[in-house]
Amino acid sequence: MFYSKLALTNLKNNKKAYAPFILSMIFLVDVNVIMQILLNNDGMNTLPGADSAKSLFGFGSIVIMIFTVIFSLYTNSFLLKQRKKELGLYNILGMGKRELGKILFIESIMVSLFSIVMGIFTGIIFSKLSFLILKKMTGFGDGFTYSLNIMSLGYIILFFVGIFLLLYVINMIQLKLVNPLELLKGTQTGEKEPKVKWLTGILGIICIGAGYYMSVTIESPLKAISLFFIAILLVIFGTYALFMASSIMILKLLKRRKSYYYQPTHFIAISNMMYRMKQNAVGLASISILSTMVLVTLSTTGSLFFGMDNVIKNRNPYDISLIVPQDKVKEVETLFKTEAKKYDLSLKEVDHANLSDGLMVIKDKNHYNLLSKETKNLNDFSKSESLNFMTQDEYNRLEKAGLKLKDDEIALYSMNGKFEGELASFGDKDFKVKKVIDSITFIPTISGISNMLFVVVANPKVMEETIKALAPNDYADYLEIEPTVYANVTGENANELTYAKAMKNQLKEMGLTNSFSSAAIDREELQAFTGGFLFLGMILGLSFTLATGLIIYYKQISEGMQDEHRYDIMQKVGMSHQEVKQSIRGQIIMVFFFPILLATLHLAFAFPLMSNLLMLFGLSDKKLFMIICVIMVGIFLLIYLVMYAQTSKVYYRLVERKAI
């Protein structure tokens, strides 16, 4: 009973440190409950693209659980640091480490029980709200109903019991490794004046520069995928190294400027930061990385959600289309028309385009060679392009153009970037490029992992000879013409969706659905995907924002406790309240605004890389992506300012000595 009362008293006396820790743990329980309930909802299996939806939320659930463990360890380290002096005092007064362990164990049980119970209770409430938000964002139908999975709640409880047990074990290990005197000193233990680590700083700049270079020079979406995580790791490592080295270097430079340094406010602020910059650097780098993660996550998911019309337009140049054998063209065109009448719809531009089968080629300057089917070289795949041929008669018919080509002339369209040069070679066959086509209306403009190249030749004979030059051994596989039947639909959107689904079912019975594409079906599926993606981005964004806020809060508390005695002495010898405020304000501004500036810089350089990745989803509107990025930076900056203002008040109250 004695230990229980003592543990409860400790929690009350340390509420400034424990309250945000408990609230953060409740929030983490909430987030995990929401993700697990949505993931294991019975209605999830009834959705169109259920496997994709479950994979998306399964991935998000794993990310949240990993984040939960890492963040719990991080906040616990701050919490234990604030308790060291108190535990040291108990130890000096005669309480052994075994008794201290009992107190910590009881405290851990109290905190874990309260956090888990409140987290489960509030998580169930918020999961219902999240379910309604997700249903609205994704357009999931009536089959997506809310259900509470007791097994999922059991997993969450076991997961957090394991986390609190891990935190207790870590605390006990640290308690056993230090002597009572070190505990009693607690946060008063200072650091020696650090030296500038030039090698670390240079390495940090090199890593960040390499990550930036990868982002701004990547042209292929496939390369963006392969280099994405490498660039992230380089920037993360570089950020930590840069903060550890450059922050000390900047402070030392300011210290050398006597006119600046020997002023009361500047002198104290710089001296305070100088002697704890090692711990500051890690915290500030973490704030910068977390801020970058928030900005990148919300910017990309928000762009996909609000750019859905752009994606659908790029994927579907026509409302409905299908690749069919040549002998099925008329039959499918007739089917399009007859079925449309059943749903009070009218069709226009019912037609077909005759293109050759696609060949994967490698470009060397303006010379193209066939990519071997046996190749497994990722670098070759990243350089490869998809090549299709069509005759000038077919091009003129579809585009209503008057192109006239000789046998040794071609017109060429390159989807990812305009073709440059006057000559082009395919195998051992050379052509003059008579015209570079700016756009083609009858093909999707979505960028794949490879560039799409369309070559218009004079006649079928030239097409056959060119394909033979590219693939002399198996050219027969590529000679077949693959007509694409397409049409535009006018009428009610609901009828269009029903019509598209009916057409898909009928074509499936004919064995012709492999390449079926419908703007209406695409819209339904894309809304589900982008809505779920944005929802997941919001959950992750909130989690990372919470982490940022708590790191700032704990830094303010820990530094305030260290500085309380110093500022008290300074005020006793004549330093005014106004000078104290100015010194604190300068110190906080220097410490906490550099990370957000660096995070914004990271986002700016990540823009080209993220643009390439978004093109894989079909989003080509870079202007929209830029607007969303700017909006997210503005919103996050406001939130960051609120966190800065609120946590600064805690620091002020700790260090400012009341006037007599």
TrEMBL record:
Keywords: Cell membrane, Membrane, Transmembrane, Transmembrane helix, Transport
Subcellular location field: Cell membrane
InterPro entries referenced in this protein's UniProt entry, alphabetically: ABC-4_Integral_Memb_Prot (IPR052536), ABC3_permease_C (IPR003838), ABC_permease_BceB-typ (IPR027022)
UniProt name for this protein: ABC3 transporter permease C-terminal domain-containing protein
Coiled coil stretches, renumbered: none
Organism: Vagococcus bubulae
Species lineage: Bacteria, Bacillati, Bacillota, Bacilli, Lactobacillales
Key word Cytoplasm present: no
Family stated for the protein in its record: Belongs to the ABC-4 integral membrane protein family.
Domain ABC3 transporter permease C-terminal: 59-174
Transmembrane domains' residue ranges: 21-39, 59-79, 100-126, 146-170, 198-218, 224-251, 281-306, 533-554, 588-609, 624-643
